[in-house]
Specification:
32% of the residues lie in helices and 23% in strands. The chain is built from eleven helices and 15 strands. Helix 1 crosses helix 11 (331-343). It folds into four domains: 4-89, Cobalt-precorrin-4 Transmethylase, domain 1, CATH 3.40.1010; 117-166 and 209-218, Dna Ligase, domain 1; 171-208, no CATH class; 220-343, ATP-grasp fold, B domain (D-amino Acid Aminotransferase, Chain A, domain 1). By secondary structure, it is an alpha+beta fold. The strands form four sheets. Strands 11-10-9-12-13 form a five-stranded antiparallel β-sheet. It has a four-stranded parallel β-sheet with strand order 2-1-3-4, sandwiched between helices. The structure holds adenosine-5'-diphosphate and magnesium ion (MG). Residues 250, 284, 296 line the site of magnesium ion (MG).
């Protein structure tokens, strides 16, 4: 087998993440560890691939995600292009899923990860909201730590919350709209059907500030969720409690860890992981007492507390029993070892 890998990072060898979304893993260390396993490693910055004719074809490419909007677009362009002639890890689909709960729902359906019913929209106007099953969870496509995630109990709340997704227009825009509505008298020779009224209505719609969102089936009565990080056959598990009077566990920082395996949870996580094809998978798992559901997932650049604060991970033994493996966490080691295992 060709043991040759290219690592692409953002500026200053950034490869997220460790403590926070702005803290990088040590890519040189990951590269050295991979080299120790017999891999030939080449490193580039994304901008070098675009601008300095680093021609990548037929290669295995492990690349960084970013939480910064401009960088996400940049990486998206480059990885889409590279994915046509290379093996990119994670896949382009999983890059699109990153910090995009809308595409996650599309992708879940593609791979048969069914469970929570969900819809993906650009506006409340698209939703048949009077006949929705309430309560329902509204999530903006972007946002972490519970920001942008609200519980909607009824139709009036739906109207209120979807209205909050928009932004009010500034005074200049408002005056301009007033002018267009009442004072404008335009004619266009090349557009004889033009109407001031129609143009005003269409322009008003065009100006409307919108945020895309999903509506996801609500799992009632949870006082915690699980964060499970799967790294090939290692399963890191952290329980996250909700704050009193809230339903969101993400962002509370109320973590707990156990060394006693929960086989049903671990088997569910494994069955989900097997639907994907990726070295790392961070899962938010909701458990209603009988069934497990995936709330959201990330293939890279996920929160690392689940590893950093743990004393080790769970692993299935050949006899299918789960066991806890004591292992002092070292993030770069974990990344390198998991990649090596995945690429085997
Ligand atoms: N469908 C759901 N039903 C009940 N609780 C949910 C549901 N989806 C998410 N939650 C809760 O809300 C929290 C935040 O939602 P999540 O989709 O993970 O967004 P974030 O990106 O903010 O972490 C989760 O940690 C979980 O506790
Ligand atoms: Mg989450």
């Amino acid at each position: 087998m060709n043991r040759d890998i290219v690592i692409l990072t953002s500026r200053n060898k950034f490869f997220g993440q460790t403590r926070k979304p702005w803290s990088s893993l040590d890519v040189d260390q990951i590269a050295a560890l991979l080299a120790g396993h017999g891999w030939k490693v080449e490193q580039h910055d994304f901008h070098q691939v675009v601008n300095q004719a680093v021609d990548l074809k037929g290669r295995t490419i492990f690349y960084a995600f970013s939480q910064k909007d401009n960088y996400r677009q940049y990486i998206n362009d480059i990885v889409y292009h590279l994915s046509k002639n290379n093996r990119v890890i994670p896949s382009y689909d999983l890059l699109k899923c990153h910090e995009n709960k809308g595409y996650q729902e599309i992708f879940k359906k593609t791979i048969g990860l069914n469970g929570l019913v969900a819809q993906y929209h650009t506006s409340g106007d698209e939703v048949n909201a009077e006949s929705l099953k309430y309560p329902v969870v509204l999530k903006t496509t972007q946002g972490t730590n519970g920001k942008g995630v609200v519980l909607i109990r009824n139709y009036p709340e739906f109207l209120k919350q979807t209205k909050l997704l928009g932004k009010k227009l500034g005074l200049r825009r408002k005056l301009d709209l007033f002018r267009r509505k009442y004072l404008r008298k335009k004619k266009f020779i090349d557009y004889p059907d033009y109407s001031d009224r129609q143009d005003y209505l269409e322009y008003r719609e065009y100006l409307k500030h919108e945020q895309n969102f999903i509506l996801q089936e609500y799992v009632p009565g949870l006082d915690f969720d699980y964060r499970v990080l799967v790294a090939c056959d290692r399963y890191y598990v952290m329980k996250r409690s909700v704050k009193k009077g809230d339903f969101r566990a993400s962002g509370t920082k109320k973590f707990s860890f156990s060394k006693t395996p929960d086989p049903a949870l671990l088997e569910y996580a494994r069955s989900v992981y097997r639907m994907f094809d990726t070295p790392f998978l961070s899962l938010d798992i909701l458990f209603n007492g009988t069934q497990y559901f995936v709330g959201e997932f990330q293939a890279l650049h996920f929160g690392m507390s689940v590893v950093a604060r743990s004393d080790g991970y769970f692993k299935a033994l050949p006899n299918e029993n789960w066991t806890f493996v004591e292992d002092k966490p070292h993030l770069e080691n974990l990344v390198a070892n998991t990649l090596v295992e995945y690429l085997k």
